[in-house]
Amino acid sequence: MRHTLTLLSVFTLTCSLFAQDVVIMPDSTNNRLVHFSPVDGSVINPNVFPLASGTTVHAMPVGNEIWVSEQIGDRVSRWAMDGTFLGQIGTAGLDNIRGMGLINGVVYVTNAGTANGAPGGAIVMFGTDGTPMGFFATPNANSPFGVLDHQGALLVSNSNANDDIHRYSYTGTALGTFHNSTSLNFAEQMAYAADGHVLVAGFSSNNVVKLDVNSGTVLSTFPASGARGVFQLSNGNILWTNASGAHVYNPATNSSTQIYTGGGRYLALMRLSEPIEGDVNGDGCVNDSDLLLVLFAFGNLGGPEDLDGNGFVDDSDLLIVLFNFGNGC
């Protein structure tokens, strides 16, 4: 009986941890936020809440908010997790913006236009409270589309030829070309693969490219017509997007399956809620069920009931549940 309950609790906890994370995407055709599973890419919620019609490109979590770049709206709109509109950054100083990145407490926004007093090809910086922090020009990537934290610096993807991805310091010093080849054209979103290398969506080259994280050389590619966004799923497949929606690529079959129809854009991982200490079964409430799970697993080696991580389910784990009893309920 003890082993049955323990296995059930492991299954329940595993499922609840996956459920706390979602991949978010702004649908720029239907003007809404979409949630995907980070495990297999399946659609969790096709209409989380409506977004503004400013040609949304990138939605990402910033603290307890969701920030959304609007390419034609020339602003970053700010939303509560429940879809309440909280305000905007811009339109002064931003024009034709695309991808963003939150790195070391700074939000980096790619900018290409000069209207509204914007600086042209540049990265515009903001604090997480929306405070402007200046900008730096990106002449080597003068039509920037994405930002990725990389080995103590930034990778900036570029839609123009001759410098697909350039490296910059956090303050804008050009550090040289990371990648440039005919294998990649019109580079949009970049993301890390499970093996640590860099995935890049190639809009005009109609592919997703994997680049060596150190040298930037091409390791592999797969067909992805008009690719915009990319994200490595935990099951090993790759979620990618284009103007027709979202697709999942399976390396085993070398084929992609469309799983969502709409205006596919950039993808970002977001945690819906933090685990509550002592909540063994992951139901959001520390109560009798959690206490019973620890009691039935008492003396076992490891497992989700080993809350303090000392290798055993013992008195200290019971105390953690008792100390947090009632939290989240």
Low-confidence stretches: 1-19
Number of domains in the coordinates? Answer: 2
Q: Helicity, in percent?
A: 10-25%
Helix-strand pattern, N to C? HEEEEEEEEEEEEEEEEEEEEEEEEHH
What's the CATH topology name of the largest domain? Neuraminidase
> Order of strands across the biggest sheet?
3-2-1-24
Task: For the structure shown, list the relevant keywords.
24 strands, about 40% strand, Neuraminidase, 3 helices, Type 1 dockerin domain, 4-stranded antiparallel β-sheet, globular, mainly beta, about 10% helix, disordered N terminus, single chain
Give the gist of this structure.
The chain is built from 3 helices and 24 strands. Helices cover 11% and strands 41% of the residues.
Set down the secondary structure blueprint.
Elements: H1 2-20, E1 21-27, E2 32-36, E3 43-45, E4 56-62, E5 65-70, E6 75-80, E7 85-90, E8 97-103, E9 106-111, E10 122-127, E11 132-137, E12 144-150, E13 153-158, E14 165-168, E15 174-179, E16 187-192, E17 198-202, E18 207-211, E19 218-223, E20 230-232, E21 238-242, E22 245-250, E23 255-261, E24 268-271, H2 288-296, H3 315-323
Antiparallel strand pairs: 1-2, 1-24, 2-3, 4-5, 5-6, 6-7, 8-9, 9-10, 10-11, 12-13, 13-14, 14-15, 16-17, 17-18, 18-19, 20-21, 21-22, 22-23
Helix pairs in contact: 2-3
